[in-house]
Structure formats: structure tokens, C-alpha cells
Amino acid sequence: MATWSSRGLRGSRLEELINITNEQYRRLKLALVQKIPTPIKPVEIDDERHITLAYFEQRSTVDYIGAVQGYPVCFDAKECAGDTFALSNVHEHQFTFMKDFEAQGGVAFLLISFTARDQIYYMRFSELERFYNRAEEGSVKHIKIEETDPDYFLVPQPGVPVHYLEGINRDIAEKER
User: What's the pTM value of the predicted model, to 2 decimals?
Assistant: First the structure.
């Protein structure tokens, strides 16, 4: 059986907290955001109808998609153990989807959990794009926590462990300036 530290379940704790947040936002009628399942094709099923072997049918785009107060949003949840986030954690097809989503007037972002610090960062797509382009130009392929904007670290609220609406509000206000 897989454990929390296995590669396949990286981000599961963060996703659990986001799912709690999304349910609370739904209850409060602040947002409707859902986890997007990764499509799989079962290859083997045991006698009890459990899938024992499967493969991904296609690449997933982002982890979550929905609407927040009339704004379409999409985002991906990422975790890193240290103070450096490797851009290799953002796959090209995810970056492209987020870029296209923003071009259509949506709000795309990453939620990055710096687990050693127990902090979650809201990374605006414009910020991700700047780091992504820097890497494409031959520079470093990671982001140091010191390079992030301190205003975008999320502060948990009662019943809302990943209060990303604050990040969205700042993100939208910045875009409107």
C-alpha cells in the first residue's frame, strides 16, 4: 500500500486541506471549485472489482478548476520539502493550459506548500511565467523562497486551512492596476 511519502501521494496532505477549504467556500457560497480527477484506463480488475493495474489515459492539466465570485479559476497544488521549488514540478502542458486559461480572462495560479516551514504560497501565473521564462533562457530552473512575494503567503482562517481567496483578490487587484 502507498504511504504519504510515496511519489504517487505527494501533495495529498495539501490537496486534503484544499478540499476542506473548497467545501467551506461552497457552503458559504463564496466559490465553487472542484478537484479534477486524472483519467485512468483500468488494465486489470480483481475478483472484488478493484482496479489492480491501470495507466493514465492522458495528461492532466491542473488539479482544480471552478468559479470564484464570477471569475473562472484554475490552479495546481504543489509541495516541496525545502526552501527551493523546482520548476520541473510544473509540466509544460500544465504551464501552457494555465497560460491559455489566463488569455481567456481566467485566473490561474499555483498553491505551493513549503512543508518544512508549514507555509503555503499563492503563486500568480504572471510570477510563474517570469520564473519559467528565466529558466527557458538558460538561467536557474528553480525558485528560492526568498524570491517570492511575502504578501502572497496564505494565512489560514478558522475552517479554511488554505485561504486562497485572499491571493485571488490581490491577484485580480494587481491585474486591474
Answer: 0.85
